[in-house]
Design brief:
The complex is a heterodimer of chains A (288) and B (228).
Chain A lengths: L2 H6 L4 E6 L8 H10 L5 E4 L11 H10 L4 E5 L6 H13 L4 E4 L21 H12 L16 E6 L7 H13 L3 E6 L3 H11 L6 E6 L4 H10 L7 H9 L3 H16 L5 E5 L7 H7 L3
Parallel strand pairs in A: 1-2, 1-8, 2-3, 3-4, 4-5, 5-6, 6-7, 7-8
Helix pairs in contact in A: 4-5, 5-6, 8-9, 9-10, 10-11
Chain B lengths: L1 E5 L2 H7 L5 E7 L2 H4 L5 H13 L3 E8 L5 H8 L3 H6 L2 E4 L3 H10 L3 E4 L1 E6 L28 H4 L27 H11 L23 H4 L2 H10 L2
Parallel strand pairs in B: 2-3, 2-4, 4-5
Antiparallel strand pairs in B: 1-6
Classes of the chains: A alpha/beta (288), B alpha/beta (228).
Amino acid sequence: MTLKEKLQKGKFVVTAEIGPPKGVDISEFNENAELLKNRVDAVNCTDQQSAVMRLGSLASCHLLKEKGIEPVFQMTCRDRNRIALQSDLLSAYVMGIENVLCLTGDYVTLGDHPDAKPVFDLDSVSLLHAARQLEQGKDLAGRELHGVPKFFLGATVAPSADPVEPQLIKMERKVKAGAQFFQTQAVYEPKAFESFMKQAKKFGVPVLVGIVVLKSAGMARFMNKNVAGIYVPDNLIQEMEKADSKLDKGVEIAARLINEVKGMCQGAHIMSIGLEAKVPAILDAAKL
Amino acid sequence: MIISELKPLPEILSFLQKERKIFIVGCKGCAEVCQTGDEPQVLEMERQLEKAGKKITGYCVVDFLCDKALIKTMLLPHENEIDAADSLLVMTCGVGVQATAAVVNKLVHPAANTLNIGGTAGTWRGSERCRECGDCVLDLTGGICPLTECAKWLINGPCGGAKNGRCEVEPDVRPCGWHLIYDRLKQLGQLDRMRIAGSIVKNYARMEPPKRLRSSLMWAMEQKDTGA
């Protein structure tokens, strides 16, 4: 069963992510893929995450596919104009990659090529619209396609953003443009997530709660100060501070969060950021 | 000088669909030279809008609509007419629309597209206010330009990168443009403008000077001067 079919059947799904390497040594990428295989329902490949130049998301998805892992192709609008984006969507489809997560993308100055010319010809909403248009047999210029692709289109939303209303408005626009599932920014407050889901429910699309494994109290404070749409409450920071093994504590908290919000959403998306090896432990602890 | 041209009347009327009482603002600067927003065009617009069933509560042609202090002074005698209006229609470049939005607590609609800066820019020097995109979207965004205020030029809403209302690119000096737009629309009770169905795919070809301009005498003389 594909990710789409599982969500349609109402199964609680789990996705994880792998960041492609900077360079062509894919040994670690392969090891991480093996760790995740048969443990999660699909694996996202990030697209030049944080605007840092690396191996491409499309090629990485193809590598996963060869291993029998269902990929989620992350696409940002920072580096390609509408011609290249549509072309890559067609390329993905002929390689058997149908799950696409449509993102706007971090700005170039956040990464390692700050002098680059940012593109943003399209954005997350218009990229979803473009993919939907291709599915209907036409490109953005209205030209007909020979052979029509089919996608399972995803998008993101930040449930902990303050204020959350602009996020909900944009979520609605993403749904109208074609989004069929959402993977959220990291969530640490089940109560706040519950009230978000109450409002997001009306859009009728499955939501996979974002889980980022805490590595230390310092990391939590850093995210609170610098990362958009993330808020780690004080009690979790204190828990991390007191823990002997920070890593074990991070895994425990991640599993606990999944269990606390499991009934509110349709799946979990675990962003391990270098801790792919810990994903099976989180799933064991969460009894998934 | 900033070159602008009036949008087609049906597009202007589509902006004003939900409103009946309109106050019109013109400009005696570049918009006069371009014949976009001088008094004759303002009076013609008044006729057209009244024909379409609108009531014009008043109008004002400001010498330079990019000068916020001047706008305040010039609009002061029209306070009652502006209060009586549902919204303002501004017949100038994007800078004039945004300057008006910045001093008047009412919804503003652009009546023109801004094509290019034909020389010196206006007098609102605080920051870059208009990218001369040739396809003004200020109607949807409460008179705050998402192409200049958002680092990513996003036109379909905020990205996920803002933190505490600050842009991810330069949080110390730069507010999130979409935060400004959200706050403004919310304050005006116009949040539905952020909820328009589907997506806008921007026509960047309009950023090129239009053919009409390129076939003008002025353009031909320039080509001759430079030997291009």
